[in-house]
Structures are given as C-alpha cells and as structure tokens.
Amino acid sequence: MLTLTSPVETPLHHWPAGAKLLLVAAGTMVIFALPDWRWGLGALALIAAGYLALGQDFARTGLRLLRPLWPFLLVLAVWHLWLQEPGRGVLLASRMFAAVALANLVTMTTRLDAMMAVIQRLLTPLARFGLRPEVVALSIALVIRFVPVLLDKATQLRQSWRARSPKTPAASIILPLAVLALDDADHVAEALRARGGL
Amino acid sequence: MERNITHIALFAALIAVLGLVPKIDLISGVPITAQSLGIMLCGTVLGARRGALAVLLFLGLVAAGLPLLSGGRGGLGVFAGPSVGYLVGFPIAAFVAGLVVERWKVSIGIASFAGAVLGGIVVMHIFGIIGMSIMLGKSLTEAAMLAVPFIAGDLLKSGLAAGITRGLARARPASVLSRN
Hints:
The complex is a heterodimer of chains A (about 200) and B (about 180).
Chain A: H1 17-33, H2 37-53, H3 56-65, H4 70-82, H5 86-109, H6 112-123, H7 133-164, H8 174-194
Chain B: H1 2-20, H2 35-46, H3 48-64, H4 84-103, H5 108-135, H6 140-147, H7 151-171
C-alpha cells in the first residue's frame, strides 16, 4: 500500500517527526489567529514558497493533495461574494488552504514508521489503562495486511457478480465480503492463539 | 482477546476498503462513498467499545499518512481541513450505534437501523456541522445546509447497515459481538 510520504527526498525528511509535529501545531494556531485577509494570503504565500523551495515535483504533489478543498473554496466564494464581504472570504479560504497545506507538509516528509513511532510514544501512558503498546502495534500491522486482502476479495466478488449479471455490482456484495472477512479474522485469531496468544 | 483484536483490525480495514472500492453506486449516477457505512457497521456489529476502537485505529493510520479516507485522502492535512468534525464524530458515531444495538433488545435489524441512524447520521452530522461551522466561519444553521444533501444517502446506508448486520447475525451469529 502506498503512503503519502513524498519519494522526493527533501531536507525536511531528516528532521525528527516529533519536532515537525510540534512546529505544525504551533503554526496552525498562528494561522487560525490571523487577523485579516492580507495576513491570510501572506501565510499562504509563505507556505507555497516553502513547498517550491523543496522542489517543483514536490510542490505539484502538494497541490494535488489540496484537491479535496476546492468544493469548499467554491462554497466560500459564492457565499462571500453574495454577502459582499470578499475580505472575510479570502481570509477563511486562505486560512483553510494554509492549515491543510502545512499539515500535509509533515505527512509528505515523514515516513510511516517514524509517524507510527510517535503515535506509539503518545500512547504509552495509556498502558496503565490496559492498552498494551505491543497489542496496538500488532493491530496496526493487521489492518495494513487486511486492507489489500479485503480489496482482493472485493474485486473477486465483483468479478463473479459481473460473470452472472448484466447489472453493475451493487451494495449487495458487502455482506458476502464481510462474511469472508470475518472468517479470515477468526482464522488469524486462532493462529495467534496457537502461537501463544497475546 | 485475540478474537477481539483481529475483529477490530478487520473492521478498521473494512472502513478503508469501503472508502476505496470504486463507486458502489447506491443511487445510480450519484457516487456516494460507502465509508460511513463502514463506521455504522463497526458499531452495529462490534458493539460500542470495540466499534469505537476500530474507528480510532483507522483514524490513527490515516493520521500517520495512509491514504485510507474516501477519495484516497489521508495524512495530517485532513485533520486541519473543514471536514475534521466528521472525523472527530466517527468514533463517537460508532460508539453510539453500538450502544443502541447492545442495549435495545429488539430484533437485530431494527436495533441496527436505529443505531445507524442515531450514531451514523445524527451524531456524525452534529460533529461534522460544528466542525464546518468553526473551520469555515459560518453559523451552525449555515453549516447545516452543507450537510443536508447527504442525509438521503445516509438513510440509505443506514438501511444497508441494518440489512448487513442482520445478515451477519444469521450467517455468523458468533461474530456479531454487539449481541454476544
């Protein structure tokens, strides 16, 4: 499974994940405290410059990750042009893009295992409440393995549906998918128990 | 114990897969993501606590950088975007859905439908609307207008969740942990 980490190596890739997370948290608070639209556009320009400084391909990927925001931009544009307060609209939109782009910067420059290590570290205090770190690690590994397995099964079910029906596969394949998957989960549970359990 | 872990991991993966499987057209022409169906199923099948844990596990992987949200979204950015309220609502929605199925001792189909509607629609949209209202600087009523177009699809998904849960209760009764 592909992660969102950029394969283009940048200097930011070598920063410790925890430090990047703290910086982004602080940066996000600043972004949400910006007073008016000039500051908003300024922050956005600063982040865009940061992306470009890390390379053109990198910036292009970063831009692609912002695609889900365009519908919201449309809503903001229509809304604030109608209300005739474009300044507020520009502030809200630039704030939205800046905050998401900044957060994506961490995701794009941090490898999955480094991020997992941070999450694990954040979860260690919960061990006192019975959430054992090794159980969390195992569950994460299981999900990462289950996703492609389930996708495979879904594809097979869709193909066997196509072979039998002129209609496109509908939601009715979800039940057999879930049944197949539950059986798999039971087998994995038995295998874990057979190897000494958790 | 082992069974709980594998089921929680499995349903976390199921949420992802339902978001990734290309257009399961619920209403022809309108591509509705089935991701929230996965959230509902976590609650109605696994029960409140395990369902919420499965959703949290899924969100943890998304935050770590896996593109598991519908449309291949993921990473920290989605938690800074306008739909963050829905993500916060995900585990609570699953918890509420599970709680209804656990506590309301009517037939599993009816309880699942009620749970899916209460958790997967009411709770989910309350959080989502509050989130959009904060992130987009709109009043709650204005933000609610953005959520209205999705309610019809959500009702359909609640029906599906109820049907699937009932089907599972027949096919694999031991696996419907919310009623065990």
